[in-house]
Amino acid sequence: MNWNRILGGSLACAALLTVAAVQDSNAQLLNGSFEMPDASGGDQPCSADWACFSGTEFTTTALASDGTQSFKTFGPFNPGGGAGAAQRVAAAEGETWVGEIYAQNASFDPIDDQDFGVIKIEFLDSAGNLAAGGVLGVDVFESNPINGATPMDTWTLLGVGTAPAPAGTAFAQFVIVKVDVDGTQGGSIFWDDAVLFIDEPSPTVETSWGEVKSVFR
Ligand SMILES: [Ca+2]
Q1: What is the distance in A from the centroid of ligand 1 to the CA of 64?
Q2: Surrounding residues of ion ligand 1, Cβ less than 5 A
Q3: Do 160 and 130 form a contact (C-beta atoms < 8 A)?
């Protein structure tokens, strides 16, 4: 933690401790754990609060990293096609964001040696277009992939961070995508516990405990 000493004369004797609001890592995305809708009676198309691409995405109880459900993507059975989902939150120019999710290559439905999955953060303008026109590293940021070489039957954390959002940014969009490279059956990728948050500097602390804090500077 970065302790910044901010001392005011009127506060010299007051034990005023003000910690800047820290982003709750789950506060931004809705249904990041894919617990809705209830899939206990069978897989449900897409997932609540997410916009899906291809119709080959389901909320399922087959696996879960967090809670009892996860998000399953397969297909979409056309070369280079993508199956997945997106959700956007309000964002602004200059903000840096971090996205994380757990992904699994399950032995009962393994990824083939062609297909892969990633998560992305995209910065969109108020019209929903890529703010900088789709420039990698400016308004499009992509995680490392999960693919057929990813260890099976374990949840692997994928993460991505951004550069400062470009001018015109109105939204940060979290994208989950499974790419069907060859358009044939390529197995499924399971996803759970998605989070998207602003990568803020350490909290600012205002206090009169200067002598104590100086130890931690
Ligand atoms: Ca879950």
Answers
A1: 5
A2: 33-34, 64, 66-67, 69, 192
A3: no
Distance of CA 80 from the midpoint of ligand 1 (Å) = 28
Residues 47 and 73 in one domain: yes
CATH number at residue 61: 2.60.120.260
Do residues 121 and 174 make contact, with C-beta atoms less than 8 angstroms apart? yes
pTM over 0.90: no
Residue pair 73/118 in contact by the 8 Å Cβ criterion? no
Distance CA 135, CA 120 (A): 13
* Total of domains in the chain: 2
- Give percent of the chain above pLDDT 70: 80
- What pLDDT score was predicted for residue 202? 64
Helix (H) or strand (E) holding 151: none
Amino acid at 4: N
Higher local confidence (pLDDT), 9 or 195? 195
